[in-house]
Amino acid sequence: MKMAMIGLGRMGMNMAKRLLQGGHEVVAYNRSPEKTKTLVKTDGAIGVYSLAEAVEKLPTPRILWLMLPAGSAIDEHIDQLKDLLTPGDIIIDGGNTFYRDDRKRADRLSEKHIHYVDVGVSGGIWGLKIGYCLMTGGDQRVVEQLEPIFKTLAPREGYLYCGEAGAGHFVKMVHNGIEYGMMQAYGEGFEILEASPFSKDFDYQKIAHLWNQGSVVRSWLLELLEDAFGHDARLKDIKGFVEDSGEGRWTLQQAVDTAVPAPVIALSLFQRFRSRQENTFSDRVLAALRREFGGHAVKDAK
After folding, report:
1. What are the tens digits of pLDDT across the range 195-241?
2. DSSP letters along the chain, please?
3. For residues 289 and 5, which has the higher predicted lDDT (pLDDT)?
4. Contact 167, 194 (CB under 8 A)
5. What whole-number distance in Å separates Cα of residue 37 and Cα of residue 48?
6. What is the CB-side half-sphere exposure of residue 139 using CA atoms within 13 A?
7. How many other CB atoms are found less than 10 A from the CB of residue 68?
8. Model confidence at 292: pLDDT above 90
């Protein structure tokens, strides 16, 4: 199939490469032209340097995959494209979009009879080699038209139609909330190991490898952790500052909205916030209270 990939960041670039390797024709566009030129030179993409040029290069019905940061960047591109496209054309959003935004965009584009498909994508930088897990939403007939693309991007049984517009990103949102909890559990477990009287004898790379050999806690995340410990046995070269992409927050808000208890996901999100703070005011309040009611020693801020 012939399609456009709009946005050539770490994910978009590798997805475009996988599509090209799978025999598809990819019209590549990025706001900064250097990445477009690189993909043309190294992988044989069709380079374009404006959205209007991307539209001109595609046969109808046109397929344009947006791989952009969630929020205003996607709306800006859609606003430009909806005046360039014709009825029957398809816009795919593969970014980490909030599902309610999908619904609004689908409604807005439907007024011009342009189809909107949302695709939650998981696989990170390893997707080029092993494929991407794809969670799709939108009109099922339109999604089925795109199946050759999904088959190329995903490993075997690695894509699923989840429901109407927004459903794909909703499933991806919850996926990332679960990921937060899993990562936090691994972090806490290895910290308990590090604080133990046996820690000087522990080889964390070997422990991570061991737990992936038939253990009930085996996972790809643990394989990645094994690699990380292989590069830095005690992770001394990085700071424990953990960002969040927003999907953990959205998952937690959805849990609140639907009265679903999600304490593990909630605590894992709050722990990420905690990782960004040092000498917090709340900790100083706790220390002061312990000094006042029990005469416990406090550490001088100097």
Report:
1. 999 999 999 999 999 999 999 999 999 999 999 999 999 999 988 88
2. -EEEEE--SHHHHHHHHHHHHTT-EEEEE-SSHHHHHHHHHHH--EE-SSHHHHHHTSPSSPEEEE---TTHHHHHHHHHHTTT--TT-EEEE-S---HHHHHHHHHHHHTTT-EEEEEEEE-GGGHHHH--EEEEES-HHHHHHTHHHHHHHS-TT-EEEEESTTHHHHHHHHHHHHHHHHHHHHHHHHHHHHTSTTGGG--HHHHHHHHTSS-TT--HHHHHHHHHHHH-TT-TTS-------SHHHHHHHHHHHTT---HHHHHHHHHHHHHT-SS-HHHHHHHHHHHHHH--------
3. 5
4. no
5. 9
6. 15
7. 25
8. no
- What percent of the chain clears pLDDT 90, i.e. is strictly above it? 86
Token digits of residue 130: 């092993």
Task: Let me know: does 140 contact 167? Beta carbons within 8 Å.
Answer: no
Q: Which is catalytic among the residues 17, 129, 164, 179?
A: 179
Instruction: Evaluate if residue 62 carries a pLDDT over 70.
Output: yes
How much is the pLDDT for 124? 87
pLDDT greater than 80 at residue 22: yes
State the average pLDDT for the chain. Answer: 94
| Residue listed under structure tokens 């040092």 | 278
pTM: 0.92
Tell me if 177 sits within 8 A of 253, measured CB to CB. no
Residue 302 has pLDDT above 70, yes or no: no
Handedness of CA 152, 154, 156, 157 (dihedral sign): negative
**Residue 200 among the catalytic residues:** no
**119-147: average pLDDT:** 96
Could you tell me which residues are beta bridge partners of residue 221?
none
Identified catalytic residue from 17, 35, 172, 226: 172
Is residue 172 annotated as part of the catalytic site, yes or no? yes
